[in-house]
Amino acid sequence: MAPRTRALSGKDASFLIGKFDYSDIFSMVGLSTTRDKADVTVLKDLGKAYVPGHFDGTLRLSGIFSAVEDKELQSYVEEASEPIISTLILGNKRLDRAKMSQIVTSEYGIDTPVDDKAGISGSGQASGLMHHCVALTNVGQQIAAATNLTDLVTPGAKTFIDLGDGHKWKRVRLHVHLTAKGAGLTGFSVKVTSGAAVTGNNIQNPTNRNGAAGVNIFGPQMYVFEFKAPEGQTVDRHWTFLLTPTGGAAGGTVTAAFGRSQE
Amino acid sequence: MPKPIHGKDARLFAAVGNPANADNISRFLNKESLPRVRDVYDVTTQGAASKEYISGLTDATFSFGGPFIAVADEKFSEWMGENRLNFGFYPAGVGAAFGTGEEERPLYKGIMFLTEYSLDANVGDKISVSAAAQIVGVPVRDPAA
Q1: DSSP for residue A73
Q2: Is residue B103 very low, low, confident or very high in pLDDT (cuts 50, 70, 90)?
Q3: Record: contact B70-A50, CB cut-off 8 A
Q4: Closest approach of chain A CAs to the CA of B93, in angstroms?
Q5: Which residue does chain B place closest to A89, by CA atoms?
Q6: Second label for A47, Cα 20 to 30 Å away, from A63, A154, A236, B90?
Q7: Is B24 near chain A, with CB under 8 Å?
Q8: What distance in Å separates the CA atoms of residue A196 and residue B82, rounded to the nearest whole number?
Q9: Contacts of A127 by beta carbon, 8 Å cutoff, 6+ apart
Q10: CB burial string B28-44: b at 16+ within 10 A, e below
Q11: What is the distance in angstroms between the Cα of A257 and the nearest Cα belonging to chain B?
């Protein structure tokens, strides 16, 4: 895990989009969350008055042109009909801080100046950007056997994933970037365990795109699972995720991250 | 006679809830900025020899930034979801008594909410963070101007 009380070099960041790790072509990644403010100043006020509004997120990227990655990146602008998950990890180890979002790509450009490298740049809206996230696996963790990912989180342990008392959230999400699939890896399951429920609060049935258990894997893929608190409520609860691959000699590489948001 | 001070002595304290529990977050920062502005309206008429103005409402924002440090990132990420953040800013450093300002070490205090939190990871530099906030109402100076 990267040092928690020391600064980090940009070279130590890792960035994944969809089923690819783009850490070897991007040289700069920037993520911003903004919050609207509404002017509520009235005549009697001595100074301007505001109330906070909606959150918004943006993503900025730049790097070197590579034909293999270009084929995928340009498709995010031309063809992608759904947001694509992205995970920025500040480090490359399990429990390193992370930022998670779903990207709606608005721009992808290629620049080829005569006196410099061919470069790329991109930008987009970061839908549902979460700053409060942590890597559940090492970046590109090898799946050596069917069971070696079952202890990503030790239930009850005071890791960040175990939110503990006082950590209120409205939305939690799990990103799984399966960047390579081994012949023996046939699927995986995601199990969410929770601590004592807060009286009066109920968790909505989890909403996800690929199912919470028994997910079949046919190739490299991205998976996202999201759980939301009921409207108007926050939840104060322990959460742990267990990511269990299935199959014989599994094989493949995976990067997973977990995040929570107060909005 | 003015006494210039170095920026390294500035201190920013902030907390959700009781200001007495405010945390010294300057240990994670390398810059803070407190711009205070006032609306200005151009009322120049055709007979004027030069431009004329009247003043309007005041406004204040706060911004800070520094290297990415995981424990600070946890704190700033939490603050993005809060609507009221108590702060105390000592541009010249903390004086003898925390919580009060002195003639040569004034204190600006008030309430703010974050309007932006950004992170930049550049392969040729340190990972850095920056944040901007809207101050609610007018920041109070101690001692009063």
Answers
A1: H
A2: confident
A3: no
A4: 23
A5: B121
A6: B90
A7: no
A8: 25
A9: A57, A83, A101, A102, A103, A104
A10: bbeebebeeeeeeeeee
A11: 15
pLDDT above 90: residue A213: no
- Minimum Cα–Cα distance from A30: chain B residue: B120
Average pLDDT over residues B22-42: 91
- Which residue from B minimizes the CA distance to A261? B81
Average pLDDT (A139-168) is 52
* More confident site: B101 or A149: B101
Interface residue A24 vs chain B (CB under 8 A): no
Q: Has residue A208 got a pLDDT over 60?
A: no
Which residue would you say has higher pLDDT here, A189 or B41?
B41
Chain B from 80 to 109: CB within 8 A of any A CB: 80-83
Q: Which amino acid is at A77?
A: V
CB contact under 8 A, B57 and A41: yes
Whether residue B129 is predicted with pLDDT greater than 90 in this model: the reply is: yes
Q: Chain A, 145-174: which have a CB under 8 Å from a chain B CB? A: none
Asked if the C-beta of B144 comes within 8 angstroms of chain A's C-beta atoms, the answer is no
Q: Give A13 to chain B, closest Cα distance, Å.
A: 7
Give the contacts of A182 (CB within 8 A, at least 6 positions apart).
Answer: A143, A249, A250, A251, A252
B113 contacts A3? CB cut-off 8 A: no
What token pair was written down for A242? 């267990």
pLDDT of A193 > 60? The answer is no
Whether B118 has a pLDDT exceeding 90, the answer reads yes
Distance from CA of A74 to the nearest CA of B (A): 22
> Phi and psi of B20, rounded to 5°?
-65, -20
Whole-model pTM: value is 0.80
Handedness of CA A233, A236, A237, A243 (dihedral sign): positive
According to DSSP, the residues that pair with B116 across neighbouring strands are: A34, B132
Q: Which amino acid does the sequence have at A201?
A: N
ipTM above 0.90, yes or no: no
Q: Which residues of B touch A12 (CB under 8 A)?
A: 127
User: What's the mean per-residue pLDDT of chain A?
Assistant: 74
**Mean pLDDT rounded to a whole number for chain B:** 90
Half-sphere exposure of A91 (CA within 13 A, CB side): 23
> Omega into B143 within 30° of 0, i.e. cis?
yes
pLDDT at A253 over 70: yes
A55–B80 CB contact, under 8 Å: yes
